[in-house]
Amino acid sequence: MLADKALDLIKELRRSPDYLQPLREDTIRQILEEMAVLFRENQNDVDAVVNSEVELHTTIHVRHIILTRMKRCLLAYLYNRLMFIKRMRWAFGSVLTSDVKTNMSEQEQQWFQKYSTNLTNYMASIGGGVGLDLTKYHHPPKSLYVQVRCLSDYGDFETEDGTIINLTKNSTHFLERSQCEKLIHQGILEHVT
């Protein structure tokens, strides 16, 4: 049936929302070829209608609707793949895992590199000249200070104001979120609720 392959691409996206499947270039190529055939048939029928009294308006209209649907499915498939790649950049940084990279087309990899470069340049330009890492916090903090527990012996930790704190195993501290966030991500500190 017409447009089934295009619909299969959308179904694939719904089956695996948390995983990037390999780009189905052959299917995309087949859909584009099918669209070209439908377009040529429409052109021929339009020429026939113009040159004679043949009534083909319904056929032309149905083909046009099918072409539009196929186009929408292709655009939705490609757009959702790019949005998945964009989410990966925000979640994991500028380096993708090899399994994600192998499932990306060359054009998607180029798009990812350009997006990463643009995001990095933008983050460097804001924050009063020192830059601001927008990927650091996925949710706005509820408070500027957090209570943390040290999971291992780290030694002396100097805060931005010059205060030195000795981080020993199982010690608890009340620190600025911005200063201890990196240690939390490294697994040295844990946020105590």
Automatic annotation (TrEMBL):
Localization: Nucleus
A single BP term in Gene Ontology: DNA strand elongation involved in mitotic DNA replication
Domain of life where this protein originates: Eukaryota
Keywords (A to Z) from UniProt: DNA replication, Nucleus
Ranges of residues in domain GINS subunit: 56-126
Annotated GO CC locations: GINS complex
Annotated ranges, domain DNA replication complex GINS protein PSF1 C-terminal: 142-192
Quaternary structure, from the entry: Component of the GINS complex.
Cited function: Required for correct functioning of the GINS complex, a complex that plays an essential role in the initiation of DNA replication, and progression of DNA replication forks. GINS complex seems to bind preferentially to single-stranded DNA.
Family the UniProt entry places it in: Belongs to the GINS1/PSF1 family.
Stated name of the protein: DNA replication complex GINS protein PSF1
High-level lineage: Eukaryota, Metazoa, Ecdysozoa, Arthropoda, Chelicerata
